């Protein structure tokens, strides 16, 4: 027998029999058909759409943007703690070095060194924006910011 669409059946136990509603009182689900008595939801088509919600409720439920969101690209942050683990003493840290270390991507246009963490080695930072706290820690460790 060839496999054709009209031979296909769902797997055993995959489907349940649907409840036969409104087939008389002897069926166990007659008269009100499990809908209770009267009311909007007991009517045919009663559960569809935004009935009796009112405009105010609709306005209140719609999501609204709050505050200001800048469209400028965010700078990729490199902390001094991570930089301390990645470089050796006396290294020159510039954009190419950060890309080689994997701390920023080649596609990153904005990046900045922040002062989180401790710096134990003297390094030279060239052509990279540095926060004030990071600048203090670099110079305290014997390094330079150019």
Q: H/E order of the elements? A: HEHEHEEHE
The helix-and-strand class reads: alpha/beta
Based on Cα principal axes, name the global outline: elongated
CATH topology of the domain at 76-145: Ribosomal Protein L15, Chain: K, domain 2
Distance between the termini: 82 Å
Q: What share of the residues does DSSP label as strand, in percent?
A: 5-15%
The total count of helices amounts to: 4
Give the proportion of residues in helices: 10-25%
Strand runs, count: 5
Rounded average pLDDT: 88
Q: Care to describe what's here?
A:
This protein is α/β, with parallel strands linked by helices. It has a domain at 76-145: Ribosomal Protein L15, Chain: K, domain 2. Helices cover 21% and strands 10% of the residues. The protein has a 3-stranded parallel sheet. Helix 4 links the parallel strand 4 and strand 5 (144-145). The longest helix is centred in the last third of the chain and has 9 residues, at 132-140. The chain is elongated. The model has no long low-confidence stretch (mean pLDDT 88).
Structure at a glance:
The protein is an alpha/beta fold. 21% of the residues lie in helices and 10% in strands. The strands form two sheets. Strands 2-4-5 form a three-stranded parallel β-sheet. A two-stranded parallel sheet has the order 1-3.
Tags for this model:
single chain, 146 residues, alpha/beta, Ribosomal Protein L15, Chain: K, domain 2, 3-stranded parallel sheet, two-stranded parallel sheet, 4 helices, elongated
């Amino acid at each position: 027998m060839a496999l054709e669409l009209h031979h296909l059946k769902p797997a055993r136990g995959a489907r349940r029999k649907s409840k036969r509603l409104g087939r008389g009182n002897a069926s166990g689900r007659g008269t009100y058909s499990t809908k209770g008595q009267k009311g909007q939801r007991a009517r045919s088509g009663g559960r569809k759409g935004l009935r009796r919600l009112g405009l105010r409720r609709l306005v209140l439920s719609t999501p609204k943007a709050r505050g200001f969101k800048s469209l400028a690209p965010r700078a990729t942050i490199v902390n001094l703690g991570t930089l301390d683990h990645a470089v050796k003493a006396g290294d020159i840290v510039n954009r190419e070095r950060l890309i080689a270390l994997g701390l920023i991507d080649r596609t990153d246009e904005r990046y900045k060194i922040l002062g989180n963490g401790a710096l134990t080695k003297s390094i030279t930072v060239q052509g990279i924006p540095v926060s004030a706290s990071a600048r203090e820690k670099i110079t305290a460790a014997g390094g330079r910011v150019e």
